[in-house]
Write the structure tokens for this entry.
Amino acid sequence: MYQASENRYEKMLYRRVGQSGLKLSALSLGFWHNFGDVDDIANQRAIMHHAFDSGITHFDLANNYGPPAGSAESSFGRIINEDFKAYRDELIISSKAGFSMWEGPYGKGGSKKSIIASCNQSLERMQLDYLDIFYHHCPDSETILEETAHALDLLVRQGKALYIGISNYSPEQTQAITEYFKAWQTPFIIHQPQYNMFNRKIETALLDVLAQQGLGAIVFSPLAQGLLSNRYLNGIPKDSRAHRSDSPFLSEDQVDATIAKIRQLNGLAQGRQQSLAQMALAWNLRNPTVASVLVGASKVSQLEDNLKALNNLEFTEVELDLINQILK
């Protein structure tokens, strides 16, 4: 039987989510990749063990994670119930609904029917009584925000979720749905947007909206699909995501267009006694509105490397100015 490290809370940093009472580990483990049926269950187990032993208390999933869709939640549920039952009250477990999950008109979107059904399915796959955070994964142009907000509020009132979040919403959509949650006193506390050195869109307005409304952010894709790591410093490996013609998230053209900047950023990271990935994670955490950064890992060593980002989270004004110059 798995027994967690007695020292698991000694080195991790925990940051408050907006004005709520909830704190998240500065790094959270994401299950978008590496936890589907196609992945080795023993490796999944080892990654989860190492994450929790290192103080990572937040595990982030979605109904469609896999592949195939749903399999990440099923694998997670198996490991949680076999290894982590004694630690359930020390964990923050989140899931999401919104992207296409099953066939027919109710398998995606923001309708009350879709959201409630999806949450019920996620709880069943993960063998859980409740989720700590449940997100609407993406806005739905065919459903009014009030209906989506009401469905999420209902999940809290049914005891199926403790807190509510949204993901991929624009600043305007975030402001609009916040008004419903405020009126109903729904514990809406968090937004999950994409954010990294190459994608700083949330800096233009979203972070301001979150700060004004007392909400926190947890950001995904902090390493820009591997661009902000040592993966591409010496070219494009044949087994890399960028080399695959079927990858919609990263292409060889993107690598070629940014390689000079990547190498300059790597030089700066070396001067900070960090890997490029570690510096990129630390850079995301420099903003006080960002409560946590989601990291993925295909092996324990990757997770170990990411955790070392916490050893140096401070940036001088000179370093920040240099990063901005490089990214121009």
User: Anything to note?
Assistant: Residues 14-224+283-298 form a domain with the TIM Barrel fold (CATH 3.20.20.100). The beta strands are 14-16, 23-25, 27-30, 58-60, 92-97, 131-136, 161-167, 188-192, 216-219, 290-295. The longest strand covers residues 161-167.
